[in-house]
Amino acid sequence: MPGSKILIVGAGLGGLTLAQSLRSQGIDFEIFERDAGPQARVQGWAVGLHKIIPVLQQIVPPEAPAIESTSVTAGHPGMDTVGWYDSKTGEPMDVGSIWVPGKSIRINRAKFRQYLLTGLPVKWGCHFTHYEIIEGGAVKALFEDGTTAIGDILVGADGLRSRVRNTLYQPNPPLLNTIPVGTVVGEITLNREQYERQAKLGRAFYIARQHGILFFVGLRGYSEDLSEGYFYWFTAFPDNKPEDSWINNATQEELLSFTKNYLKGMHPDFREILDLQKPEGVSQAFILYDRVPEVCPDGPVTLIGDAAHPMTPFRGQGANNAMEDAVGLGQKIGEATKSRTSLSQALRAYEEAMVPRASEMVL
Predict the structure, then answer these.
(1) pTM for this model (two decimals)
(2) What does the alpha-carbon distance between residue 165 and residue 10 come to, in Å, rounded to a whole number?
(3) What value does the mean pLDDT of the chain take?
C-alpha cells in the first residue's frame, strides 16, 4: 500500500537481494545488520549462481559493477571449470565448464556482497533482540542499544540463529535438525605452479567422492598479479553426535592430522593440497543443521534464507534459495503495494511458493 514500510533484519545475500528488489520498485524499507560494517568479518567462500543472474541484473542500480567482476576467476583467462572424481582412482565422474556468460558464474562471496550493497543504506551495528506487534497491526523492531524501528512488515533475514524466527514462534521456537556429519575445513594460498595443477582438476572447484569419502576443493580468487591463488577445502564424515564430538575441542594440528589420515586412501592428485596445508590454515569444525520450512503464523512477519530453511552446503543451493526467496517476496510485496491489497496475505502467498521449493533442497 502507498506509504508502506518494510523492515529487513540481516544484510546477508538474501536480505540485500530483497532490499534491491524493494529499492527498484520504489518501496520504502530499512535494512539492519549486526556487523559493524561491510568488512567486519569474513563473508564465506564462494557460491555458484545460475538462474538468479538475469533477475539481479534487473534490480541492482546501473552503477553496480559487472556481475562477472565478482567471479572467483576474475582476471584470469582460464575457463571456469568444475570436476567430480572418484576419490581413489582419480577417474573423472563428470567434468565441465559452468561459466556461461549471463547464465552461470562462481562468485566470491565478499565481492558479491559488495555488488549487492550498491546504493543500499544499510544500518550497521544494529543488534536485533525481538519485535512487538503494536496498535494498528504494525510491527516494532527492538535493538540492543535501545533504538526501535516501526514498519508494516518485518522480514527475518538473520540467518541460522534467527532472533526473528525465535520471536515469531515464542514461547516454543522450533528446534533445528542436527545433521549427523562431522566436518574439517581449511584455507591455503598456492603459488602459480601449484594452483595451475589444481585448475586441471577444476578451476572453480572439484569434488572427490565415493568409497565413503567426500573432499571438496574450491577457489576463492587470485592475487592481482596472478602469482597466487586462494583456496579452501572441506571434508565431511559420519558423526552421530557432532555437537559432542572431540573435533570441537581439537587443535589445528590434530584436525589436520586426522584429515590426512582419514583421506589417506585418496588419489595423490587430490592429496597434494593437504600435503601443502599448514595447521594454522585449518579452521574450527562447524556443525551442520537444517530445517524444513513452513508457512509462518498469520501476521506481518516472515522469514527468508537460513532463517526460514537452513540447509547443508552439499547441494550448493543455500545462497541461491535465499536470493530466490528475496526475489519472490519482493514481487509479492510489489504486487500488494500496487493493488492496495493485504501485505500479510502477500507474505503468505510468498511462503506458499517458497515452502515446496526450499523443502526439496532440504529433504
Answers:
(1) 0.93
(2) 12
(3) 92
